[in-house]
Amino acid sequence: MTSHSIEPSPPVRTERHGAVLVIVTDSPPVNALSAAVRDGLEAAIKEGAVDESIAAMVLRCDGRTFFAGADISEFGKPLRGIPLPTLVDAIEASPKPVVAAIHGTALGGGCEVALGCHYRVAVPSAKLGMPEVKLGLLPGAGGTQRLPRVVGVAKALEMIVLGNPVSARAAADAGLVDRLVGEDTLEADAIAFARDVAGTRPIPRVRDRAIAPDPTAPEAFRKTHGRKLRGFDAPEACIACVVAAGEKPFEDGLAFEREQFTALMNGAQSAAQRHIFFAERQAAKIDGIDPATPLRAIRSVGVIGAGTMGGGIAMNFLSAGIPVTIVEMQQDALDRGIGVVRRNYEASAAKGRIAADAPDKAMALLTPSLSLDALGDCDLIIEAVYEDMAIKKELFGKLDAVARPGAILASNTSYLNIDEIAAVTQRPGDVLGMHFFSPANVMKLLEVVRGARTAPDVLATVMALAKKIRKVAVVAGVCDGFIGNRMLMPRQVEANKLLLEGATPEQIDRVHVAFGMPMGPFQMADLAGVDIGWHRDPGRIENIRDALAAEGRWGQKKGAGFYDYDDKRNPAPSPRVAEIIDAFRAKAGTTPRVIDDEEIVARTLYTMVNEGALILEEGMAQRASDIDVVWIYGYGWPVYRGGPMFWAKTEGVEKVVAGLERYGFPVAKSLRNGEAVK
After folding, report:
1. pLDDT for position 1
2. Mean pLDDT across the stretch 107-119?
3. pLDDT single digits (tens) 276-333
């Protein structure tokens, strides 16, 4: 028997509709502009250009979307095929009108291809945008030069520097889309539009448009958005390119854009941001579990505890259209929690973040109860009660009797042993951890803790469910603090030691903020509450934090913690805290010394990397990139540094190891040999 290989169909084909040539791309899943697609488009444009029977062309895509961007798997590799900027120029130079027919998303290179076309039609549900900045890049195929010529400088800055897509209706209002067409008649409407414009001369090319002067727009944009752009290289390069579009001839602007794009592509920040892009997708894959494992149906969810965490957890499911039963022990606590959930939804609606009727729709899915029996029919039950092992074990014992067979039982614990909790039930295979981060309705990270006996389909179901509730989920093993909080511990320990040795809270926090963290360890303590975990015995003062808590310096909520706060919660160094630190130094017989920033980095950040290496060695994380995802989405690690493990690689393993050894830390084997940061 002879077997024959089947040649894959070319990703681009042409279809003739009278005098209109329809160029169709079919390259699943998102019609990325790969080398094969680019070459196919170039050939099709040439076909239409030389055929005298063709008067106009339509560019459209099969599948769920228009071109959703460049093929980023090609980044950093030798160029194959026609470069995207050359292709866009070739489309624009066509002697016959080319109409982009847009559905789904026209993002990045896809939006640049659309701008190279002479006209753009779109279905109302489509979105257009240039999100390259989120990969540490800028639109490199003329986007920074063409978009300002179409939508103006201010709108171009918003779309390019922030990188958020706009709806087709907003794009039409801005002039980026020439006509909105029927959702189900895109091709027919685009062909009709192409016939209407076939004889237009001269053919309108974006490069020929003048830019309306708007000299104040760049500085106004920086003033409005500067805080969220702090530390990133790409946004400023984007602004410079948009400014160049208004100041330079088109070809000179293109050359400047290419220069800026190349510098960013070769820089550390874009490498870090691209690393996280792929790491997030990799994190969804579960080692040792068949991707085809059948999942359990999650039609309803129970949440135990209506406090800050419980209410926030419930909102994730309500927002995804999943009914939630929330249980509290006391009516006043239940009423208070339900009220907070409603106010959160109403605040979002008032700001235009959700539809006006969304709060009522979400609240209609919420059932409050004072009885665990109300959870009997739930497919997933998540407890969000006080972080105490005895309390959680008692609760899971009760849930074991209440929950239906096959229901998944999850703990929101941030530190405690999931195996110990599961052991009190008759169904340990149905138990795992779902560690949400506060505020749970906002923070994207979800640590999914796999117990020793957690069933494969339970883990796979929760990982899939995380995507539905718009979380970035990472699998963690059972250890104290799992991934994120375990790595936080050495940072906190060393930060406190540094205080006793001569550093100040403001110095340590300044180093972390300069590094790119949203706040330092002592600012974070004040925000979360200095009293969290405090034993509440004023007569037992074992450390600086105990002393602060005993004096009522509980952080921002009390107007005093490691810092003093004014009425607007602006921090200032505290003379009283300095006295407390001095007293502890005297008690320990420590003479304060000058501590430089390098030592703070080594002792608070290198130690985190070292702990991450130990986590990998113990199998508590599946891969180094998962650790990076945890810290990016759960703790505000700057994305332009790529997460702790990626940063250690860019910092240099030898440098990190030497820094740890300089201050007497035992170095993890997998860090010393570089395995932990591969």
Report:
1. 41
2. 98
3. 999 999 999 999 999 999 999 999 999 999 999 999 999 999 999 999 999 999 999 9
What is the predicted pLDDT for the residue at 7? 54
For residue 583, pLDDT over 80 is answered with yes
Q: For residues 418 and 425, give the distance between their C-alpha atoms in angstroms, rounded to a whole number.
A: 12
Q: How far, in Å, CA of 5 to CA of 23, rounded?
A: 27
Strands (E), 543-636: 563-565, 571-573
Task: Give the integer Cα–Cα distance in Å for 458 and 610.
Answer: 31
- Residue of 15, 52, 74, 132 marked catalytic: 132
What is the tally of structural domains in the chain? Answer: 3
* pLDDT tens digits along 246-280: 999 999 999 999 999 999 999 999 999 999 999 99
Contact predicate 283/629, CB 8 Å? yes
Which CATH number belongs to the domain containing residue 23 in this structure?
A: 3.90.226.10
591 Rama sector, left if φ>0, alpha if ψ -120 to 50, beta otherwise: beta
**DSSP assignment of 236-253:** HHHHHHHHHHHHS-HHHH
Catalytic residue flag (residue 112): yes
Query: Could you tell me if 67 and 29 are in contact, meaning their C-beta atoms sit under 8 angstroms apart?
Result: no
> What does the radius of gyration of the chain's CA atoms come to, in whole angstroms?
29
Residue 125 main-chain phi, psi, to 5 deg: -80, -5
In a domain, 453, yes or no: yes
Task: Note the pLDDT tens digit of each residue in 586-621.
Answer: 999 999 999 999 999 999 999 999 999 999 999 999
Asked if 60 contacts 96 with a C-beta cutoff of 8 angstroms, the reply is no
Residues 18 and 96 in one domain: yes
Burial class (CB in 10 A: 0-12, 13-18, 19+), 205: middle
Mean of pLDDT over the chain: 95
Domain hosting 209: range is 12-265
pLDDT digits (tens, 9 = 90+) for 533-557: 788 888 899 999 999 999 999 999 9
Question: Alpha helices, DSSP H only, in 529-562?
Answer: 544-550
From the candidates 112, 447, 494, 611, give the one annotated as an active-site residue: 112
Closest CA to 155 of 84, 245, 89: 245
Q: Which of 72-76, 151-155, 157-161, 240-244 has the lowest mean pLDDT?
A: 72-76
Which pLDDT belongs to residue 8? 67
Helix (H) or strand (E) holding 576: helix 575-588
Annotate 193-230 with DSSP letters as a single string.
Answer: HHHHHTT-SSPP-GGGPPPPP-TTHHHHHHHHHHHHHT
The predicted-structure confidence for 441-490, as pLDDT tens digits, reads as follows 999 999 999 999 999 999 999 999 999 999 999 999 999 999 999 999 99
506 carries an active-site annotation: no
Length of the chain: 678
- Do 458 and 421 lie in one domain? The reply is yes
DSSP alpha helices (H): ranges in 230-381?
Answer: 234-247, 250-265, 268-283, 308-319, 331-350, 358-364
Peptide bond into 204 cis (omega under 30): no
Query: Is 490 within the bounds of a domain?
Result: no
| Separation of first and last alpha carbons in the chain | 45
| 56 neighbors 94 (Cβ within 8 angstroms) | no
- From residue 360, how far is each of 183, 319, 328, 336, 511 by CA, in Å? 29, 11, 22, 17, 45
Supply 162's token pair: 């922030």
Q: Which of 545, 562, 588 is the last residue of a domain?
A: 588
Q: How many CA atoms lie within 13 A of 394 on its CB side?
A: 7
Together in a domain, 120 and 236 = yes
| φ, ψ for residue 219, nearest 5 deg | -70, -35
Instruction: Please say whether the beta carbons of 668 and 614 come within 8 A.
Output: yes
Has residue 629 been placed in a domain? Answer: no
Share of the chain above pLDDT 90, in %: 94
